[in-house]
């Protein structure tokens, strides 16, 4: 029998699913030391009715669904003490106002990706993905065991926010092109929708990054505003119809190797909560995050098979092109690090962890995928 997210929520509610030991000990430890007001809060069953604003289009498959899933788990685990209503981008506030809305208390929670907030602090980009960075499992390892989460919390505290890992897109695809990319010179003069640091790398290769929101990409390609685009992976890209107007689907997504998504909560509000609710909010994020990442991998894999059957032409960037893009990427990251002390602090930790984990991945996953798996 397939275990679904509904079963999980039901299991928590019925008590048939046991919470992890770390969570029980965390909660138990804090029950012992809790203040009188916390006890009163729990006994009185104070109810919270929150809004979560997101950067995703309303009802966006997988990424938006993970927000609804999160709200379901929090409600079940807290016995209804916290109820969260989820809003798609533009429903309550525009997608790119999520950060400020949650920070200033206009909504209690948010969901999106930290690199959208590079304008607030360029260092935020390291907590989603940077070109030639780390894949999903390496990113989550850095965040949870390598000191990354503390740096993320420290940075967001300056903005009155608490961040939590909210999922991962998995490795993205390199994008849709109407010309073959055989040498680095084929990127010259190319107008491509490639946001953030990836766009800066494209600039070094002589291309022009164009900033377009997800919903504007198709028309941009159709009208020649852009020659090429990246978006997510097979599942969401196919939904957008890029295969109808592009010749080649390139891989890998060197610019987003494993983009971490985020849940955010207003810090002042979070700090005022009793410890059991704090633990529930974090444990629910871990569950929703895992579910989201697994969903992305599954949906993308299923869609790839459909695309291949329909004759979509999948190409891989030649090694020489990737090698040169990697050199440009390191230049971009070093330049950022040299001009922004907060980015330097985060990048130093990021680099140190990547240097430690890469050789390990090299003798495990890399070998496995190269030699064993089809
Ligand atoms: Ca992307």
Polypeptide structure, described:
There is one protein chain. This protein has 374 residues and is of the alpha/beta class. It has a domain at 5-169 and 259-298: D-Maltodextrin-Binding Protein, domain 2 (3-Layer(aba) Sandwich). Helix content is 50%, strand content 14%. The chain is built from 15 helices and eleven strands. It has helices at 5-14, 21-33, 36-44, 63-77, 98-103, 136-145, 148-157, 196-204, 217-222, 234-240, 267-271, 275-309, 319-339, 341-363, 365-372; strands spanning 48-54, 82-87, 109-112, 161-168, 175-177, 191-193, 208-210, 228-229, 248-251, 260-266, 313-316. The strands form three sheets. Strands 2-1-3-10-4 form a five-stranded mixed sheet. It has a three-stranded mixed sheet with strand order 5-9-11, with no helix packed on it. The chain has a three-stranded parallel sheet with strand order 7-6-8. The protein is globular and about 65 Å long. The two termini are 28 Å apart. Calcium ion (CA) is lined by residues 172, 230-232, 256. Calcium ion (CA) binds at residues 172, 230-232, 256.
Short structural summary:
By secondary structure, this protein is of the alpha/beta class. Helix content is 50%, strand content 14%. α8 (196-204) links the parallel β6 and β7 (208-210).
Give the key terms.
single chain; 374 residues; alpha/beta; D-Maltodextrin-Binding Protein, domain 2; three-stranded mixed beta sheet; globular; disordered N terminus; binds calcium ion
């Amino acid at each position: 029998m397939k275990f679904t997210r509904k079963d999980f929520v039901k299991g928590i509610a019925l008590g048939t699913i046991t919470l992890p030991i770390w969570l029980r000990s965390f909660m138990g430890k804090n029950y012992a030391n809790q203040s009188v007001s916390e006890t009163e809060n729990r006994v009185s069953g104070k109810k919270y009715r929150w809004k979560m604003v997101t950067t995703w289009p309303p009802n966006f498959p997988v990424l938006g669904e993970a927000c609804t899933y999160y709200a379901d788990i929090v409600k079940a685990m807290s016995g209804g003490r916290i109820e969260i209503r989820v809003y798609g981008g533009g429903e309550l506030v525009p997608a790119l106002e999520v950060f400020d809305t949650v920070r200033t208390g206009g909504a209690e929670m948010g969901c999106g990706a930290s690199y959208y907030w590079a304008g607030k602090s360029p260092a935020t980009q390291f907590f989603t993905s940077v070109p030639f960075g780390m894949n999903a499992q390496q990113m989550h390892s850095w965040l949870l065991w390598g000191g990354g989460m503390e740096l993320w919390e420290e940075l967001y505290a300056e903005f009155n926010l608490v961040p939590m890992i909210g999922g991962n897109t998995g490795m993205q695809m390199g994008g849709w092109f109407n010309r073959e990319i055989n040498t680095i010179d084929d990127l010259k003069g190319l107008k491509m929708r490639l946001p953030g640091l990836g766009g800066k790398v494209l600039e070094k290769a002589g291309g022009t990054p164009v900033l377009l929101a997800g919903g504007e990409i198709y028309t941009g390609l159709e009208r020649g505003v852009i020659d090429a685009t990246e978006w997510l992976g097979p599942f969401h890209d196919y939904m957008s119809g890029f295969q109808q107007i592009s010749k080649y689907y390139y891989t890998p997504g060197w610019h987003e190797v494993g983009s971490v998504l985020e849940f955010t909560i207003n810090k002042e509000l979070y700090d005022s909560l009793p410890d059991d609710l704090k633990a529930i909010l974090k444990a629910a994020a871990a569950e929703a995050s895992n579910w989201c990442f697994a969903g992305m991998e599954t949906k993308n894999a299923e869609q790839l098979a459909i695309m291949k059957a329909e004759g979509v032409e999948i190409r891989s960037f030649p090694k020489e092109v990737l090698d040169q893009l990697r050199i440009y990427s390191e230049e971009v990251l070093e330049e950022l690090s040299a001009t922004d002390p907060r980015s330097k602090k985060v990048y130093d930790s990021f680099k140190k962890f990547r240097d430690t984990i890469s050789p390990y991945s090299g003798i495990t996953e890399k070998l496995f995928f190269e030699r064993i798996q089809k």
